[in-house]
Description:
The complex is a heterodimer. Chain A has helices spanning 131-134, 155-165, 186-199, 222-236, 248-261, 275-283, 312-320, 329-333, 350-353, 363-387, 394-411, 421-432, 445-451, 453-462; strands spanning 3-4, 7-11, 14-18, 27-32, 38-47, 50-55, 67-74, 76-79, 87-89, 105-108, 125-126, 139-140, 147-149, 175-184, 205-211, 240-246, 287-288, 295-303, 323-327, 340-347. By secondary structure, chain A is of the alpha/beta class. Helix content of chain B is 33%, strand content 22%. In chain B, strand 20, helix 4 (268-277) and strand 21 form a beta-alpha-beta unit. The radius of gyration of chain B is 27 Å and the shape is globular. Strand 5 (38-47) of chain A pairs antiparallel with strand 1 of chain B, so a sheet runs across the interface.
Amino acid sequence: MKEYRTITQIAGPLVFVEKTEPVGYGELVNIVLFDGSIKRGQVLDTSDDLVVVQVFETTAGIGRDSGIRFTGETIKMPVGRDMLGRILSGGGKPIDGGPEIVPEKRLDITGAAINPYARGSPNDFIQTGISTIDGTNTLVRGQKLPIFSGAGLPHNQIALQIARQSKVPGSKEAFAVVFAAMGITKEEANYFMQDFERTGALERAVVFLNLADDPAVERIITPRLALTTAEYLAFDLGMHVLVILTDMTNYCEALRQIGAAREEVPGRRGYPGYMYTDLAGIYERAGIVKGKQGSITQFPILTMPGDDITHPIPDLTGYITEGQIVVSRELHRKGIYPPINVLPSLSRLMNLGIGKGHTREDHKKVSDQMYAAYAEGNDLRGLVAIVGKDALSERDRMFLEFADLFENRFVRQGYSEDRTIEETLDIGWNLLSTLPVEQLVRIDRDLINKYHPKFRQAGKAEG
Amino acid sequence: MEVKTEKTKSDTAGVLKRIAGPVVTAVGINAHMYDVVKVGKEELMGEVIKIQGENIIIQVYEDTSGIRPGEPVTNTGLSLAVELGPGLLTSIYDGIQRPLSVLVDKMGDFIQRGVSAPGLDHAKKWEFKPLVREGAKVSPGSIIGEVQETNIVHRIMIPPNMKGGTVQSIKAGSFTVDEVICTLDNGTQVSMMQKWPVRVPRPVNEKMNPTVPLITGQRILDGLFPIAKGGTAAIPGPFGSGKTVTQQQLAKWSDAEIVVYIGCGERGNEMTEVLTEFPELEDPKTGKPLMERTVLIANTSNMPVAAREASVYTGITIAEYFRDMGYDVSLMADSTSRWAEAMREISSRLEEMPGEEGYPAYLAARLSEFYERAGRVKTLGGSMGSVSVIGAVSPPGGDFSEPVTQNTLRIVKVFWALDAKLSQRRHFPAINWLNSYSLYLDSLHDWYDKEVSPEWNTIRSWAMEILQKEAELQEIVQLVGSDALPEAEQITIEVARMIREIFLQQNAYDAVDTFCDMKKQYDMMKAIRQYSDLAYAAQSAGVTPQQIVTIKSKNDLPQIKFIKDYTPALQKILSEMEAEFNALRSSA
């Protein structure tokens, strides 16, 4: 392989090389340092006279005397069956002291878009055992549902609880977890690893670790390596794969860093204008393919800077993903776990996975009714602060109480409490029964007669 | 722009000089703006978007990884065009009209590159029935025959860019879209397929003013903020506020004859949802599967960005084609913001001077050109047709002051403002009734008068007034609590709540409530009005609001939404209501 020593400029993560033979766009590049060590990069711009290379690691040690080797192919990920149970670096190298991965295939890490026509309809209900997800923001297989959190909130616990408890009721199909850490601390990574080891999940997992002190630019490829692995497990080996990506905020920061180094016209808050397309290239790799057994379900985690949901990172994410689970600082302060605020949370695919044949026929309407009642009660709290409880009408007081009950009985549950969907819905009905029946305008009479605790008991007595 | 659908010059070969993502530079070809070129050894499809001396700058519709300088580039000499003819309906295309089903057959479940696929099936035979005889005079746009495509009749026209003349021969029978079905005296040969460049609006005889509403079966839209057939509307809203559900409801239930749905830079799973759902849903008018009147364009967010830019043009050209047959077409674009972002991305790769928020300075011009292709028209063939355009807008952070929303609002006539607050409390459709507007109210006044009821326009104004009043009263309630309001205004609050909960809220997932015709809308609103009149009358007769709120029959009113044959139930509620009020008044 030809080695060039024609570096003309090094700026941030970018290396400019002159007078090369034709080089392909997106090609993988090896940069050979004076001590023989090798750094990897990728071609960002190629023309007759100048090639721009983005280096995935720190550029420390690269100089004008460094050698450049163009590999002639785009970045590929070696994948194989024995990846399960392994811990790899953010660049895909084993770091658990074990042997190299024996590749069965080498796959392009950018991944191709699933043809919308070939996509299967995601409608298998996943029971996470958490009421605020199962009951009001239901997850289905093949969905991408991010957790929007903030610094210091227990999003890691929630992600772990989901990873541990998730199951499709009545199904015993092979599953796997792919975990990609981007820029999180060693401590946080340990927290995940210990839980994986304790619960035995590690042997069904592939872990990619790019820690806080690893090169930021490497984070650009970490999620892509993870998803390439997930696609192999799902569509080649037929497993149901749960992908946890944490923390997407760090990924986006790395993206901004490169954009700035390339002197691109920045979009909102300095993030590159193509961030939507770039993130879509990651999130859209969730799904089901018709006629194939496996599936990819994604749980990206991101911390909203300043708890601001309109910040470009959560904003663009929310436009791509199929809903979001929002972790609330207010609920956390009240000591409620999991502090999931259902009001701004949403699962877009919920309606595909609930109802008759999936969960229960009353699911949708119970959920809507609880939402409406909780929203109303929550609004009244603001009013109470001004005029006091006594100025409220009888009706308003009931809704106010409902909001408190909802938080304490429906939202609040234990870290290892695994509720079935029936339990979740029954808690819902019990809470709704504190309101007068005529206030339940979103539920039709037939369902009220069948499931409302008052009528249900009456029905049983008669029957 | 010149209309080029046939080759105008011989191919010239050039070479690639530079590749940077979806934008590449070539030298050595004699290209014109918007010519389609084949890039690299794999012949990826691209379009010339800038000419700078020797350098021809091309946006490529497929992924450019691995392409090197020095690879060949050839110019086709054609503009980016779509194939129009039988076979469009029920199809699902990518942004440059490649049928996604064909792509699955050719390259598997994932989108690979370098595969071309024609928009129409050129092997399939269609049963053609002539509608003109030999010797008839025809001109561009004249309908010369028809094909029963689905339950929709596909009318075959003389293409607008051909010369008219006298029909020399025309034959019935089974033909492919390429075979000649008609010859004119000037030698022109007409087949069932025509090609049209997507960036050029198809010509019409005359643009007319819209006077008929596009009935959507959605109460807040038809009732309060209607769009006319041939009109334009924008639905801006933050994520999760229900843009896509609203767009899909419109695609399902609007009383257009043809629906073109563009998924522009949106989610793959959403398109799957449309693909699985539409064939099973019935058109309320014809009873046939909704899919039979639908053309889908899906260029999801992770598919190439240049093809996303092209997708809205592909969609509107197909819509115009059906309009030219004399159909009412509605086009949904979800989302125009992704389209604008594609423009921004290409523009920044061209290193153009950015306008507001990095968008190119021509953003406003492109948006208005696009919306201007909507309209109710007299076609070249002499019939009436329309294209209604409904564009979703996804403003970053839900902030309506951003450039795409603002530039869109300057053009469109209807604004359906989605509100995250409403969706959080599961008030759907989450359209804010105070911020939304429709500028078609005046031109549709007569239609509602005649087709719904002479009372309708008054009752609509009444409802809007109550809602406006409520908003003002709510500010006071926030300060002093509802009990402190005067008695009459407590009733106003109650009536407004009924309008919101009974009329405005609509469940898209309920089999009955998902579509509500105008008669039912009118009956529901009238029932609320009746309650209101009785309540105010009772109050002035000395009944307290606390007593009025206890009226039981009104609690059954929301159930009307979920009942198909609602009239008996509604009558029962109304007569009970009257009895209850009479009882209250006599005891007061």
